[in-house]
Predict the structure of Phosphomannomutase.
Amino acid sequence: MTLIKSISGIRGTIGGKPSDNLTPIDAVKFAAAYGSWLKERTEGDSVKVVVGRDARISGEMIQQLVMNTLIGLGIDVIDLDLSTTPTVEVAVPMEKANGGIILTASHNPKQWNALKLLNEKGEFLSGSDGAEILDMAEKATFEFADVDSLGNIKPATHYIDTHIEEVVMLPLVDAKKVSEANFTVAVDGVNSTGGIAIPRLLKRLGVNVIELYCEPTGHFPHNPEPLKEHLTDICQLVKEKNADLGIVVDPDVDRLAFISEDGEMFGEEYTLVACADYVLSKTPGNTVSNLSSSRALRDITQKHGGTYKASAVGEVNVVQLMKDTNAIIGGEGNGGIIFPELHYGRDSLVGVALFLTYLAEKKMKVSELRKTYPSYYMSKNKIELTPELDVDKILKDVEEKYDSEEVSTVDGVKIDFEDHWVHLRKSNTEPIIRIYTEAGSQQKADEVAQKMISEIKEIANLV
């Protein structure tokens, strides 16, 4: 069992001993630290926090603990109850709240849960803010409100519908065009809140919906990470029902994957590529993704005359670089779409609406659209090292070895060759180097990865 504390929140498995797992005591302590931090920043003014959760089994328990801790601090709570990560992000500025908490462990299995923390803009906290809250949680010097100053809870379960309307009203979303296309779409909501939000959005767009695992019970019917090996049921359903496409989201609805009409994966890396292709075709501009995302976004951006930049891995890093470069769309290659016209957060609802509008406009099958993009293939590996090895020195040696190539050290070491790239990142918690490669064929990507693993072992004297 595990408890992981990071600048973006606290994540762990339910049950067990405090400080070793995500227990009620840990949830209260961390919520108290976040609430106390917000109160310090607002200098005595009233504080308001939006709270929402995905459908995992422990969600209601954790939410009650978190909300009542905030009330005990004299903080008012806007209770979204079952919601999505992007919906909470949208609700924070709408409510003029001081922050937000999303109770979700994203794509982790059902025994996990987490508290993810937002600022007053509905964006994930900066590293320095997160570090302050972790420090406050460790010191646990909280001061709770007296009986006349307790906070209140205000239910606000309409926000998924509000979020949907905000998406539909975006200038680049054409509900009429989507409706006229008469799409039939299968949806795998992995028995979480995507099963509420995505079918509701599709029906609002005039789409015929086939629901699979859309009951928000929290009992995930398969591994909730939307990868090909976990999605055999939806792939089969798309073919059986002659659907135009399939849509898959993770439990908190910030990762989006499409299934083509032939039951094949569109490619999680290509979710962002397709949405960006559409947005850039209407409003030329710049894009951002992280260093471990596909080169295809760069290609598409340059085709439309824009500039592509790569950030360090992590949504907060992508968002900051998007702001710095005035990017009009960005995200992560794991199916996360960030469209600043609505908000700076990964949002599957925005991704679905943009993709369907583009598909309706192009009047082509999903598999045909996929063929219009450059084909890249990834290999994701890791190499485990002994604890006494200096991982930073190993990465420095690799950097120096390839100094004649285009090398980035923004996040680990990324080496851009003419027809492929390699990205090496060290783990913050264990002696591991993660090795991501991309090339024009799966064989080449795998070969490049194995070659790099051999070189690292040689540098570390492990051969």
